Amino acid sequence: MAKEFRNIVVLTGAGISAESGIKTFRDADGLWENHHVEDVATPEAFQRDPQLVHRFYNERRAYLLDGIEPNAAHRALAKFEAGHTGQFTLVTQNIDDLHQRAGSRNLLPMHGELLKIRCKRSGQLFDCHEPTSPEQPCPCCNQSGNLRPHVVWFGEMPLHMDEIEDALSQCDLFISIGTSGNVYPAAGFYQMAKAVGAHTVELNLEPSNHGSRFDDARYGPATVEVPAFLQSL
Ligand code: APR
Asked: Mean pLDDT throughout 152-157?
Protein backbone atom coordinates (compact mmCIF):
# COMPACT_ATOMS: atom_id res chain seq x y z
CA MET A 1 0.00 0.00 0.00
CA ALA A 2 1.59 3.26 -1.10
CA LYS A 3 0.19 5.74 1.44
CA GLU A 4 1.70 5.79 4.91
CA PHE A 5 -0.94 5.91 7.62
CA ARG A 6 -0.18 7.72 10.87
CA ASN A 7 -3.28 7.42 13.04
CA ILE A 8 -4.79 3.97 12.96
CA VAL A 9 -7.91 2.67 14.71
CA VAL A 10 -8.66 -1.05 14.67
CA LEU A 11 -11.99 -2.49 15.79
CA THR A 12 -12.17 -6.21 16.55
CA GLY A 13 -15.09 -8.54 17.23
CA ALA A 14 -15.70 -12.19 18.00
CA GLY A 15 -14.37 -13.35 14.61
CA ILE A 16 -10.76 -12.60 15.59
CA SER A 17 -10.98 -15.05 18.49
CA ALA A 18 -12.89 -17.75 16.59
CA GLU A 19 -9.74 -19.59 15.53
CA SER A 20 -8.55 -19.58 19.15
CA GLY A 21 -11.63 -21.66 19.93
CA ILE A 22 -14.11 -19.06 21.21
CA LYS A 23 -17.52 -19.21 19.56
CA THR A 24 -18.88 -16.13 17.80
CA PHE A 25 -22.28 -14.78 18.87
CA ARG A 26 -24.50 -14.98 15.86
CA ASP A 27 -24.65 -18.66 15.02
CA ALA A 28 -27.44 -19.79 12.75
CA ASP A 29 -29.63 -20.99 15.65
CA GLY A 30 -29.67 -17.53 17.23
CA LEU A 31 -28.56 -18.85 20.61
CA TRP A 32 -25.44 -17.83 22.49
CA GLU A 33 -23.81 -20.84 24.17
CA ASN A 34 -27.31 -22.36 24.45
CA HIS A 35 -28.86 -19.29 26.08
CA HIS A 36 -31.04 -16.51 24.79
CA VAL A 37 -29.09 -13.26 25.12
CA GLU A 38 -31.88 -11.67 27.13
CA ASP A 39 -31.56 -14.45 29.78
CA VAL A 40 -27.87 -13.84 30.51
CA ALA A 41 -26.70 -10.51 29.11
CA THR A 42 -29.05 -7.78 30.29
CA PRO A 43 -29.33 -5.91 33.62
CA GLU A 44 -32.88 -7.28 33.95
CA ALA A 45 -31.60 -10.86 33.62
CA PHE A 46 -29.08 -10.22 36.41
CA GLN A 47 -31.80 -8.80 38.64
CA ARG A 48 -34.14 -11.72 37.86
CA ASP A 49 -31.68 -14.61 38.14
CA PRO A 50 -28.22 -13.59 39.37
CA GLN A 51 -27.28 -17.24 39.96
CA LEU A 52 -27.77 -18.07 36.28
CA VAL A 53 -25.84 -15.00 35.11
CA HIS A 54 -22.93 -15.66 37.48
CA ARG A 55 -22.87 -19.30 36.33
CA PHE A 56 -22.92 -18.29 32.67
CA TYR A 57 -19.87 -16.02 33.06
CA ASN A 58 -18.13 -18.54 35.34
CA GLU A 59 -18.36 -21.06 32.51
CA ARG A 60 -17.05 -18.57 29.94
CA ARG A 61 -14.15 -17.62 32.27
CA ALA A 62 -13.21 -21.23 33.05
CA TYR A 63 -13.24 -22.04 29.34
CA LEU A 64 -11.05 -19.04 28.49
CA LEU A 65 -8.51 -20.02 31.14
CA ASP A 66 -8.42 -23.66 30.08
CA GLY A 67 -5.83 -23.53 27.31
CA ILE A 68 -7.31 -20.86 25.01
CA GLU A 69 -4.45 -18.91 23.43
CA PRO A 70 -4.07 -15.81 21.24
CA ASN A 71 -3.78 -16.66 17.55
CA ALA A 72 -1.75 -15.27 14.65
CA ALA A 73 -4.19 -12.37 14.14
CA HIS A 74 -3.95 -11.16 17.78
CA ARG A 75 -0.17 -11.48 17.62
CA ALA A 76 0.12 -9.65 14.28
CA LEU A 77 -1.79 -6.65 15.71
CA ALA A 78 0.48 -6.49 18.77
CA LYS A 79 3.60 -6.75 16.62
CA PHE A 80 2.37 -4.08 14.24
CA GLU A 81 1.57 -1.72 17.14
CA ALA A 82 5.06 -2.20 18.60
CA GLY A 83 6.65 -1.13 15.33
CA HIS A 84 4.27 1.72 14.46
CA THR A 85 5.52 5.25 15.08
CA GLY A 86 2.16 7.06 14.85
CA GLN A 87 -1.00 6.60 16.91
CA PHE A 88 -2.47 3.11 17.15
CA THR A 89 -5.71 2.40 19.01
CA LEU A 90 -7.17 -1.07 19.27
CA VAL A 91 -10.84 -1.11 20.22
CA THR A 92 -12.28 -4.52 20.96
CA GLN A 93 -15.83 -5.70 21.53
CA ASN A 94 -14.45 -8.95 22.90
CA ILE A 95 -14.39 -9.66 26.61
CA ASP A 96 -11.66 -12.32 26.35
CA ASP A 97 -8.10 -11.27 27.22
CA LEU A 98 -6.45 -12.53 24.04
CA HIS A 99 -5.34 -9.09 22.78
CA GLN A 100 -3.81 -8.35 26.20
CA ARG A 101 -2.01 -11.69 26.24
CA ALA A 102 -0.73 -11.17 22.69
CA GLY A 103 0.90 -7.93 23.91
CA SER A 104 -1.40 -5.18 22.59
CA ARG A 105 -0.85 -2.02 24.63
CA ASN A 106 -3.21 0.76 23.61
CA LEU A 107 -6.33 -1.37 23.99
CA LEU A 108 -9.88 -0.24 24.77
CA PRO A 109 -12.16 -3.17 25.71
CA MET A 110 -15.46 -1.38 25.09
CA HIS A 111 -17.69 -4.29 26.20
CA GLY A 112 -15.76 -4.98 29.41
CA GLU A 113 -13.49 -7.81 30.52
CA LEU A 114 -14.39 -11.34 31.52
CA LEU A 115 -11.45 -11.55 33.92
CA LYS A 116 -12.69 -8.63 36.03
CA ILE A 117 -15.63 -8.16 38.36
CA ARG A 118 -17.05 -4.91 39.63
CA CYS A 119 -18.80 -3.60 42.72
CA LYS A 120 -22.21 -2.29 41.68
CA ARG A 121 -22.05 0.34 44.44
CA SER A 122 -18.54 1.79 44.16
CA GLY A 123 -17.63 0.78 40.60
CA GLN A 124 -14.33 -0.62 41.92
CA LEU A 125 -12.79 -3.35 39.73
CA PHE A 126 -11.21 -6.60 40.90
CA ASP A 127 -9.24 -9.19 38.95
CA CYS A 128 -11.20 -12.39 38.75
CA HIS A 129 -9.96 -15.83 37.69
CA GLU A 130 -12.26 -17.83 39.98
CA PRO A 131 -15.99 -18.61 39.95
CA THR A 132 -18.23 -15.90 41.44
CA SER A 133 -21.67 -16.10 43.08
CA PRO A 134 -24.42 -13.79 44.33
CA GLU A 135 -23.58 -14.85 47.91
CA GLN A 136 -19.94 -13.75 47.66
CA PRO A 137 -19.14 -10.67 49.79
CA CYS A 138 -17.68 -7.78 47.85
CA PRO A 139 -14.04 -7.00 48.81
CA CYS A 140 -14.76 -3.26 49.05
CA CYS A 141 -18.16 -3.04 50.81
CA ASN A 142 -18.22 -6.54 52.34
CA GLN A 143 -21.84 -7.06 51.23
CA SER A 144 -23.11 -9.96 49.18
CA GLY A 145 -25.05 -9.33 45.99
CA ASN A 146 -23.00 -6.31 44.96
CA LEU A 147 -20.46 -8.02 42.70
CA ARG A 148 -21.28 -8.31 39.01
CA PRO A 149 -19.35 -9.32 35.89
CA HIS A 150 -17.43 -6.37 34.42
CA VAL A 151 -19.23 -6.89 31.15
CA VAL A 152 -21.38 -4.41 29.22
CA TRP A 153 -24.83 -5.91 28.80
CA PHE A 154 -27.50 -5.03 26.25
CA GLY A 155 -29.06 -1.73 27.28
CA GLU A 156 -25.89 -0.49 29.01
CA MET A 157 -23.43 2.16 27.85
CA PRO A 158 -20.18 0.81 26.32
CA LEU A 159 -16.93 1.78 28.05
CA HIS A 160 -14.18 4.18 26.88
CA MET A 161 -16.47 6.00 24.44
CA ASP A 162 -14.73 9.38 24.84
CA GLU A 163 -11.32 7.91 24.05
CA ILE A 164 -12.74 5.91 21.14
CA GLU A 165 -14.46 8.94 19.60
CA ASP A 166 -11.31 10.97 20.09
CA ALA A 167 -9.19 8.36 18.28
CA LEU A 168 -11.76 8.00 15.47
CA SER A 169 -11.91 11.76 14.97
CA GLN A 170 -8.17 11.79 14.19
CA CYS A 171 -7.71 8.53 12.31
CA ASP A 172 -6.56 8.17 8.72
CA LEU A 173 -7.01 4.37 8.62
CA PHE A 174 -9.84 2.36 10.18
CA ILE A 175 -9.75 -1.45 10.11
CA SER A 176 -12.72 -3.56 11.16
CA ILE A 177 -11.87 -7.19 11.94
CA GLY A 178 -14.17 -10.14 12.67
CA THR A 179 -17.36 -8.30 13.50
CA SER A 180 -20.80 -8.71 11.93
CA GLY A 181 -21.80 -5.06 12.32
CA ASN A 182 -24.96 -5.83 14.26
CA VAL A 183 -24.28 -4.08 17.54
CA TYR A 184 -24.09 -0.30 17.91
CA PRO A 185 -22.28 1.92 18.59
CA ALA A 186 -19.35 -0.20 17.31
CA ALA A 187 -21.20 -0.98 14.07
CA GLY A 188 -21.20 2.75 13.26
CA PHE A 189 -17.51 3.46 13.86
CA TYR A 190 -16.65 3.03 10.17
CA GLN A 191 -19.00 5.95 9.40
CA MET A 192 -17.26 8.18 11.93
CA ALA A 193 -13.91 7.27 10.39
CA LYS A 194 -15.22 7.94 6.88
CA ALA A 195 -16.57 11.31 8.00
CA VAL A 196 -13.02 12.46 8.80
CA GLY A 197 -11.68 11.11 5.50
CA ALA A 198 -10.07 7.90 6.79
CA HIS A 199 -9.45 4.91 4.53
CA THR A 200 -11.75 2.12 5.77
CA VAL A 201 -10.99 -1.59 5.54
CA GLU A 202 -12.96 -4.69 6.49
CA LEU A 203 -11.21 -8.00 7.24
CA ASN A 204 -13.79 -10.70 7.90
CA LEU A 205 -14.73 -14.23 7.01
CA GLU A 206 -17.62 -12.94 4.90
CA PRO A 207 -19.11 -9.51 4.11
CA SER A 208 -20.58 -7.94 7.26
CA ASN A 209 -23.80 -5.91 7.33
CA HIS A 210 -21.84 -2.88 6.08
CA GLY A 211 -19.24 -4.71 4.00
CA SER A 212 -19.96 -2.92 0.74
CA ARG A 213 -19.47 0.49 2.37
CA PHE A 214 -15.80 -0.04 3.22
CA ASP A 215 -13.15 1.31 0.83
CA ASP A 216 -11.35 -2.03 0.86
CA ALA A 217 -12.32 -5.52 2.03
CA ARG A 218 -10.53 -8.86 2.30
CA TYR A 219 -12.48 -12.00 3.09
CA GLY A 220 -10.98 -15.06 4.74
CA PRO A 221 -9.92 -16.33 8.17
CA ALA A 222 -8.48 -13.66 10.48
CA THR A 223 -5.27 -15.66 11.06
CA VAL A 224 -4.53 -15.31 7.33
CA GLU A 225 -6.04 -11.94 6.39
CA VAL A 226 -4.87 -9.86 9.38
CA PRO A 227 -1.13 -10.67 9.21
CA ALA A 228 -1.21 -10.33 5.39
CA PHE A 229 -2.96 -6.96 5.44
CA LEU A 230 -0.74 -5.50 8.18
CA GLN A 231 2.31 -6.73 6.29
CA SER A 232 1.11 -4.81 3.22
CA LEU A 233 0.99 -1.47 5.06
N1 APR B 1 -11.97 -14.89 10.82
C2 APR B 1 -12.57 -13.71 10.54
N3 APR B 1 -13.88 -13.48 10.77
C4 APR B 1 -14.61 -14.48 11.30
C5 APR B 1 -14.05 -15.73 11.60
C6 APR B 1 -12.66 -15.93 11.34
N7 APR B 1 -12.05 -17.09 11.59
N8 APR B 1 -15.06 -16.52 12.10
C9 APR B 1 -16.16 -15.78 12.10
N10 APR B 1 -15.92 -14.54 11.60
C11 APR B 1 -16.84 -13.41 11.43
C12 APR B 1 -18.26 -13.81 11.13
O13 APR B 1 -18.43 -13.97 9.73
C14 APR B 1 -19.05 -12.63 11.67
O15 APR B 1 -19.22 -11.62 10.68
O16 APR B 1 -16.88 -12.72 12.66
C17 APR B 1 -18.14 -12.07 12.78
C18 APR B 1 -18.65 -12.32 14.19
O19 APR B 1 -19.86 -11.66 14.37
P20 APR B 1 -20.68 -11.74 15.74
O21 APR B 1 -20.79 -13.14 16.19
O22 APR B 1 -21.93 -10.97 15.54
O23 APR B 1 -19.72 -10.99 16.81
P24 APR B 1 -19.50 -9.44 17.08
O25 APR B 1 -19.71 -8.64 15.84
O26 APR B 1 -18.20 -9.32 17.78
O27 APR B 1 -20.67 -9.14 18.11
C28 APR B 1 -20.75 -7.86 18.66
O29 APR B 1 -22.55 -8.55 20.10
O30 APR B 1 -23.51 -10.11 21.52
C31 APR B 1 -22.80 -8.93 21.42
O32 APR B 1 -21.50 -7.93 23.10
C33 APR B 1 -21.48 -8.97 22.15
O34 APR B 1 -19.38 -7.92 21.56
C35 APR B 1 -20.48 -8.68 21.06
C36 APR B 1 -21.30 -7.89 20.06
From this structure: 96
